[in-house]
Amino acid sequence: MPDNDPSTGGNEPTIVDVAALAGVSIRTVSRVLNQSPKVNKETRARIQDAIDALNFRPSLRARALAKGRSFLIGMVHNDRNALVLDSVQRGVGREATRRGYEVICHSVPVGDPGAGQDVLGFCRRARVDGLVVMPPVSDMAGLPAALQADHIPAVAISAVPIEGYGAVLLSQERQAAGDVARHLLALGHRRIAMITGPQDMISAIERRAGFVEALEEAGVGPPVEVEGDYSLAAGMTAAGRLLAISPTPTAIFAANDIMAAGVLKIAAARGIAVPDALSVVGFDGSIVAEMLTPSLTTVARPFGEMAEMATRHLIDLIEGQTPCDLDSPVLSLVPAQSSGPSTDPSDSGPSSP
Questions:
Q1: Region entry Disordered: which residue ranges (predicted)?
Q2: What is the DSSP letter of 309?
């Protein structure tokens, strides 16, 4: 073993050590590291064995200089839900690491007049090779064109198709919200209410539309609605309003799990049994759904899988490869303890709050 073998307390192994152990030139090792096709299978395997034996990790700076890239992937978001954001970051990170890239995350002040320039400024400062754009940032008007003008490859995740990105991974939230309505209808509920997300966000608009459309298709009038902002406080405030009307709803659909947790909190404080007197459904499928008592019926969104797929497509674009397919992931309703059959024979539609 060379003197700089980390197991002997020396410095980190270098490309020189790999070349010496494999019995090849430094140039040949460099070609393997840069995935060049100009190395035969046997030599490639010998070099990989040397890399593994030495636990060699190529310098990101050296690779960047050799390839004229930073090997950095940017992820821009404006999600205050740490549970969702953690899953997304892990998904982006898994694929980026597998492909030899690092990830830099940046929160964008969506709604600020300078939000678009904020994204471009981040890309220029960090010198990212490409961008994964999460909603609601992905839905900002003019952003795809601005990224194109700066020659920044970008893949977006959104609830609706958007022109101008390298690709868009669609999250079928309208259909999933319709599944929530059909679930509650199948349980016999007719006095149904909804706590929407902020109606300046496409995700919230799509969830509301899908829910309302499914109720109307079943011949049930539109739900009583209270708008929230996806926070726990908003869920509690909205639940207080909805549970004060007469007759009270027998089911409430909250447009995310955090607001649904607020509904459960208010129901418990008022002695309203869930699901016997009130069914509650959320949206996201975050870990909080399993932590609540009763466990929350929710729509599971595979955040990590979606982020991983978007990152894979982005790196394919960056490296000039044929991009992977961006199939829309399945958003599935996961029944749990918080929803059950309506026990109210007069369930015929609530009045307005």
A1: 329-353
A2: H
Residue 47 belongs to a domain with what CATH number?
1.10.260.40
Residue 346 covered by a domain: no
State the DSSP H helix or E strand holding residue 103, giving kind and residue range, or none if neither.
Answer: strand 102-107
pLDDT, tens digit, for every residue of 207-252?
999 999 999 999 998 899 999 999 999 999 999 999 999 999 999 9
**Positions of the chain with pLDDT under 50:** 1-10, 348-352
Number of domains in the chain: 3
Q: How far apart, in whole angstroms, are the C-alpha atoms of residue 133 and residue 79?
A: 12
> Among residues 220, 141, 138, 219, which one has the least CA distance to residue 171?
138
| 309 and 165 fall within a common domain | yes
Predicted TM-score (pTM) of the model is 0.79
Distance in angstroms (rounded) separating the CA atoms of residues 120 and 115: 9
Domain C-terminal end among 251, 278, 297:
297
Residue found by looking up tokens 């405030």 in the block: 237
DSSP 8-state assignment for residue 272? -
Residue 237 and residue 263 share a domain: yes
